[in-house]
Amino acid sequence: MQQEADLTVADYFTPWSVAYLNAHDLDLSSTGTVILPDQDGPYPHELIASGKQGIVYVLNRDSLGMFSANDSQVLQEVVLEPNVSNDVLFGSPAYWNHTLYFAPRASPLMAFPLSGGLLGTPLKTVASYAGGRHSPSVSANGNSNGVLWVITGQLLAFDAVSLKMLYSTGQAPNGRDTLPPVGHFVTQTVANGKVYVGTQNSLEAYGLFHVVTITGGNAQTATVATALPAPINVNAANPYNGQPDVGATVNFSDGGKGGSFNPASAVTDANGNASTTYTVPQKTGTYTLTISGSGFGNVTTTATATPGAATRIIAYGGARQTAAAGSNLANAIVAQVQDIYRNGVSGVTINFTANKGAVPNPSSVVTDANGLARTTLQLPTTVSTVTVTASSAGLKNLNIAEYSVAGPAANIAITSGNNQIAPAGTQLPQGLAVLVTDQYGNPVPGVDVDFDDGGAGGTYSYVNPGVTSNSGTLTQFYTLPPSPRTVTITATGLATTAVFTETAQ
Fold first, then answer.
1. What's 33-58 look like in SS3?
2. In this structure, are residues 449 and 466 in contact, taking their beta carbons and an 8 Å threshold?
3. Which residue of 124, 221, 303, 433 is most buried, as measured by CB atoms within 10 A?
4. Is 204 a member of any domain?
5. Radius of gyration of the chain measured on its C-alpha atoms
6. CATH no. for residue 267?
């Protein structure tokens, strides 16, 4: 056995700034070294060293150089973040697939590519995730599917190529994956497809959920309130060896949307299989069905509920509108065909008819995806209440009321009181009566009419101007001027006028 006195130092490396490092507690021993696989280039055998100063040294293992002025023996010297004064390294870097990963205390995680034995420009995470005391590690399937792991209060996982964050133990609901307080310099360990972390009071193991696969009954369709045509079949298996998960409880849910499962919970058989039937809700739509269980990652499928048979027609919109005679209603008349659960039924032909000379356009409509059929209506030229009827074979007719009213006043005509003779200064025996109508001869109420005798000196019994009644008429009584003469009285208020000629004797 060799005695200690026989051992001699063959080689070593000491930074040129060792005095400064010692004086400011920036020793190189805060991290472990990493021995790289053989590299291309002039120095195949390399070693990576770093420390509290945030400087990375690439060294030649065949000749570390001991102590040299200005670190001339170093193959490469990299300052991680020149503008960050406290960029301390307490954890050793991780190596995978020609890349070195660093987790500084005050900077983003960094991935340095290695080429020809030298570090290239690093890729960095978008934010600082480093915890300052924990070394990163990498899990991978050879040179693919690399995942970078680091502890920063919680355990985080990043894509080892893009450095995009994939997972945090703090993200699962109800604190399912929360990492308890860990040891001061603990490093997560990857083994057998799991990540192990030693905490202050436990050993936490993070691994894959058992895999649930839908093996039958995916994405089916059924009429509302009926069962899907085929059962939903699932298989549960161990994610590491593919063996069936026997006796596992599998739960089925539609998120409380109103459907039902039979059974709502099943236990896997000897082949890891479980099955259920699903009755879709009474409301049409596509529903997400979730299959879950203790230790399983959720898997989803869909079920689509389509309408049942048409049972009725309802007024959906455009009823009880009012518009001028001879015009079109402002809004469409909309009918909906529904099933027993009030879902719209598409593809049903609705025929629209109307009385009083009103004209629906179109008169025949096929309901759309929501069971709706729309038509416009041209009102008759008369004032009336119009009934629009929506009908379809096998369904009760729907009657919708619309209102045709007089249009704008267009004409004024004398109905009585013209060409009277009476003593001067007396009231004419008949009132001066006019009728105001629209373009189709319908009486127009509420029109102001002004009687004007051109300054002849007569007087009016009622307020002048007056307003036409609901029947479109207005009557005004006139007292003749005190001296004999022929008086012309004009009824105005429209583009047309009515002219009375009266005689005072």
1. CEECCCCCCCCCCEEEEECCCCEEEE
2. yes
3. 303
4. no
5. 47
6. 2.60.40.10
Could you list the residue range(s) of the whole structural domain that residue 221 is in? 211-306
Q: Which of 493, 475, 481 is nearest to 417 (CA)?
A: 475
CA dihedral 211, 215, 218, 222 (to 10 degrees): -130
User: What does the alpha-carbon distance between residue 32 and residue 217 come to, in Å, rounded to a whole number?
Assistant: 55
> Of 256, 275, 306, which residue is a domain's last?
306
Query: 295: left (phi > 0), else alpha (psi -120 to 50), else beta?
Result: left
pLDDT digits (tens, 9 = 90+) for 475-499: 999 999 999 999 999 999 888 999 9
Residue 244, CB half-sphere, CA atoms under 13 Å: how many?
13
pLDDT band for position 137 (50/70/90)?
A: very high
Closest C-alpha among 201, 195, 34 to residue 114: 34
- Tens-place pLDDT, residues 297-327: 789 999 999 999 999 999 999 999 999 999 9
Asked if residue 253 belongs to a domain, the reply is yes
Comparing CA positions, the residue from 361, 365, 358 lying closest to residue 337 is 365
Among residues 177, 163, 71, 54, the alpha carbon closest in space to that of 107 is found at 54
Alpha carbons 327 and 325: distance in angstroms, whole number: 6
Question: Is residue 254 packed enough to be buried (19+ CB in 10 Å), middle (13-18) or exposed (0-12)?
Answer: buried
Statement to judge: residues 228 and 298 lie in one domain = yes
Do 39 and 170 lie in a common domain? yes
Cα distances (angstroms) measured from residue 22 to each of 33, 297, 348 = 19, 52, 89
**Buried-exposed string 76-110: b where 16+ CB fall within 10 A, e elsewhere:** eebebbeeeeebbbbbbbbbbeebbbbbbbebbbb
Percent of the chain with pLDDT over 70: 98
Q: Does some domain include residue 13?
A: yes
- What does the alpha-carbon distance between residue 505 and residue 143 come to, in Å, rounded to a whole number? 123
Residues 150, 36 share a domain:
yes
64 residue type, one letter: L
Question: Using CA atoms, how far apart are residues 13 and 36, in angstroms rounded to an integer?
Answer: 17
24: confidence class by pLDDT, cuts 50, 70, 90: confident
CATH number at residue 132: 2.40.128.630
Is 389 found in the same domain as 422?
no
Identify which has the larger pLDDT, 25 or 197. 197
The one-letter amino acid code at 100 reads L
- Total number of domains constituting the chain: 4
Residue at 347 is within a domain: yes
The amino acid occupying position 317 is: G
Same-domain pairing of 333 and 302: no
Q: Is 115 exposed, middle or buried (0-12, 13-18, 19+ CB in 10 A)?
A: exposed
Q: How confident is the model at residue 380 (pLDDT cuts 50, 70, 90)?
A: very high
**Same domain assignment for residues 336 and 242:** no
Q: Which residues pair with 189 in a beta bridge?
A: 196
Question: 416 and 500: one domain?
Answer: yes
